[in-house]
Amino acid sequence: MDTARELSAQLATLLRRERSALAEFLVALADFDARRAWAELGYASLFHYLHRELGLSKGSAQYRKVAAELIQAVPAVIEPLRDGRLCFTTIIEVARVVDARNWEGALPRFYGLSRHEAAEVVVALAPHPAPPVRTVLTAVRGPGSAGSTVEPVAPPPGSSRSAALTPLTAERQRLHVTVSERFGRKLERLRDLRPDLSDDALLEAAVDLLLAKAEKRKGALTERPRASVRPSRDPRHIPAHVRREVWRRDGGCCQWRVASGEICGSTHALQLDHVVPLALGGESSPGNLRVLCAAHNLLAARRVLGDALMDRHAVPRARGAP
Ligand SMILES: [Zn+2]
């Protein structure tokens, strides 16, 4: 019995040390993220740094990234993590609803909970606990009079398309979008033709169609490439056979070399990058082209063209996206 007590005391000590080490790691990681030190090492995000440089699984990297971001917003999270009141596996749920304004009331509600129980608290605290299944078309009065056709316009500079997506639960999001009266009529017609599909299924099918078309254009592999290709006089034009060749050679993923010497490998928002920019006389040939993710394409352009020039063109990017 004495031995069992002693062993148990030893386990309790080890557990305290484990929690303490994790808390220390997360505090250091939050500081690392605040300095954007991952960008200095050539990574596109903190997530990529954790996954590629520290060798964490994607799941572990995601947990630690979310925790590091939460600690920056709500430093009070660290003590409950250290003393075990807050279980690390609930951190993603906690981050969904706890912020700098509500943490004093909201954070203690997660103490001692399992991940599953934490998810229930999120639903109770979240502004949209139950995802509505109805769709409402509301008329919005604008400068154009009713019935006039308005050409689609690009979103104003600085506006973010993704801002219109609000997470409701882990699986459901709400898309809030202002549409033209013309779009409303088309949607009504589609509803009549396909009464079997819900509105979100209709929209998803439309997005799938456009996506397939755009991805095909972007590069990549058509089943039967055209045999003859006319050379283009526009140096910005990248012929389809060149796109296909570069895409195939690079395996359809970002070729940027990160600090560890490996390639980035991201498949997010891929673009074809001119190693020597067109502005500096580079050609649209396979030897001068490579596949890069959006973050590394921007980084490459900054390195070659200089920050001052790029700041005039850069689009603000959501922080911390994996
Ligand atoms: Zn990349």
TrEMBL record:
Q: Does the keyword Zinc apply?
A: no
Q: Report keywords, A-Z.
A: Endonuclease, Hydrolase, Nuclease
InterPro entries tied to this protein: HNH, HNH_nuc
Is Nuclease one of the keywords?
A: yes
An example of a Pfam family matching this protein is HNH
- The UniProt record lists the HNH nuclease domain at 241-298
Molecular-function annotations in GO = endonuclease activity; nucleic acid binding; zinc ion binding
CDD domains reported in the protein's UniProt record = HNHc
Identification of the protein by name: HNH endonuclease
Organism of derivation:
Anaeromyxobacter dehalogenans (strain 2CP-C)
